[in-house]
Amino acid sequence: MSSVLVGHQILEEIPAGQFSQYNKPFQEKIFQGLLTDRQWASQMVEVMRPDFFELRYLEYLCEKYFSYFTQYRCFPTQGLLISIIKDALSEDGDVLLRDQIVSYLIRVRGNPSPGDISYVKEKSLDFCKRQAFKEALEKSVELISSDNFESVISLMKEAVSIGIPNTTGHDFFEDMEARFQKINRCVCPTGIPELDAKDILAGGLGRGEIGVVTANTGVGKSHFLVQMGANAMRAGKNVLHYTFELTEQSVGIRYDSNLCGISSSDVVDNKARVVKYYEENSDLGRLIIKEYPTGYPSVTTLRNHI
Predict the structure, then answer these.
(1) Which CATH number is 215-305's, of 3.90.70.10, 3.40.50.300, 3.40.1280.10, 1.10.10.60?
(2) pLDDT tens, residue by residue, 247-270
(3) DSSP letter assigned to residue 165
(4) Architecture in CATH for domain 2-161
(5) pTM above the 0.70 mark?
(6) DSSP characters for 74-133?
């Protein structure tokens, strides 16, 4: 009897199978997370159902988004998703739903990187995994009553592992369609036309990509990194620059030199010119320069600082 009571208590503690406990902005950010983080979206496909959304327009968007993934094994770009929605709604004729979707997507474009999106993704994934676990527990009760204990073990193992990234990878022949979908990379140009050319970096470094600069000592690796950071600032991007050799002030002077067009050796003597430049160019992105001793920081150190 006690074990049954404990089971009921666990089920009661797991929330109902809908995002109704979250407000409208929170639910909108859940779908925005699906749009902007495809790796996270691939986790959510396993544990989340479109009808988890309390808001009809988000449920509709999610249904089309997940359906495309099921068919092509990749997620549509936002532009392609809009085309899919337009075609579908032209047949349905639901004007109110169309207006709600358009209004939502406009808000997403106006705020492409909400600061709390990581928290929203963590909470919503946890909610979905708990819901999957709850459904597994309910099925287990039925299996236990029929003495089907081996199936209970398999069911619970599946429930525990669900939502964990475990893709086998890109099946070359089965997933061929995914290779021919145009992907809109969100790039940050280096500012050097020869590198940003289509056949080299195709516009610059994209979101989620890592650029590695290697060269002999004294060739100019640090100056090149400053060039990339300064160009990102000109594009309105926020830059976090780690230095393991030069001081924070020395790197800052190099940014002053690059941004203001002044030789590094003359920056200190041209304070007024530097200050005036930044006052006239207030649309520059933010820059944080952080120094660590050589060989000291680990990936965890940098992650904690970020």
Answers:
(1) 3.40.50.300
(2) 999 999 999 999 999 999 999 999
(3) -
(4) Orthogonal Bundle (1.10)
(5) no
(6) SPPPHHHHHHHHHHHHHHH--HHHHHHHHHHHHHHHHSSS-TTHHHHHHHHHHHHHHHHH
